[in-house]
Amino acid sequence: DTAVSQTPKYLVTQMGNDKSIKCEQNLGHDTMYWYKQDSKKFLKIMFSYNNKELIINETVPNRFSPKSPDKAHLNLHINSLELGDSAVYFCASSQEKSQPQHFGDGTRLSIL
Amino acid sequence: GDSVTQMEGPVTLSEEAFLTINCTYTATGYPSLFWYVQYPGEGLQLLLKATKADDKGSNKGFEATYRKETTSFHLEKGSVQVSDSAVYFCALSSGTYKYIFGTGTRLKVLA
After folding, report:
1. Do B46 and A101 touch (CB under 8 A)?
2. Backbone angles phi, psi at A83, to 5 degrees
3. What is the pLDDT, as a whole number, of residue A1?
């Protein structure tokens, strides 16, 4: 069983479109995260939810909106996609503060 | 604020060579320290961790020791294999939900 699963794995779309990425974890963790990894492998945190509550919201454009319907799911919706949004987006989860994070395999978003 | 600095890559080694990837950090308090590995097309996987000074984390032949006096957490392996080729990330967490990652070091091992 995959611990942290993201869908889709690949997303190719046109500039200006709206898209969503879904994430689910079956580890029973309380905290989930979204990261953006650029082409140089730099990993930047975007959002974090703890028990469905937003606890980290880094400087991310308002076009990005996370939603956590329950503590096992954290989805990411992106409006009006721009070329600079092309990246790999990773979902992760952890049980407690400072505990190791478990990552999904990523969603590669390509904007044409 | 907290930060992690790791050596620039890529690092290219021959099989069975000794590996060191340097990692230093700045943090308030006593952070937990981690090494993650990312294989091509995959997410990050925890390689090892250490939660207090002088702790040694180890896994799959990799080791790293939490050195508070030098604020370092260098990754070492005595004999690398081609299958170790990947990107390695040093990270810390200072008792909050936020994790700080280094920029990653790409390792390429040649047969």
Report:
1. yes
2. -55, -40
3. 66
Size of interface A-B (CB pairs under 8 A): 58
The amino acid present at A71, given as its one-letter code, is: K
On whether the CB atoms of residues B44 and A90 are closer than 8 A, the answer is yes
For residue A11, CA distances in Å to A21, A22, A84, A111 come to 9, 12, 14, 8
Contacts of A43 in chain B (CB under 8 A): 44, 89, 101, 104
pLDDT of residue A68: 94
Is B43 within 8 Å of A90 when comparing Cβ atoms?
yes
Strand intervals (E) in B3-80: 3-6, 11-14, 19-21, 23-26, 32-38, 44-50, 56-59, 62-65, 75-77
Phi, psi angle pair for A52, to nearest 5°: 75, 0
As a whole number of angstroms, the distance between CA B39 and CA A110 comes to: 20
Model confidence pLDDT, tens digit, residues A26-84: 999 999 999 999 999 999 999 999 998 999 888 789 999 999 999 999 999 999 999 99
Confirm if B35 and B88 have CB atoms less than 8 A apart.
yes
Q: Looking at per-residue confidence, does A34 or A96 come out higher?
A: A34
Partners of B32 on chain A (C-beta within 8 Å) are 98-99
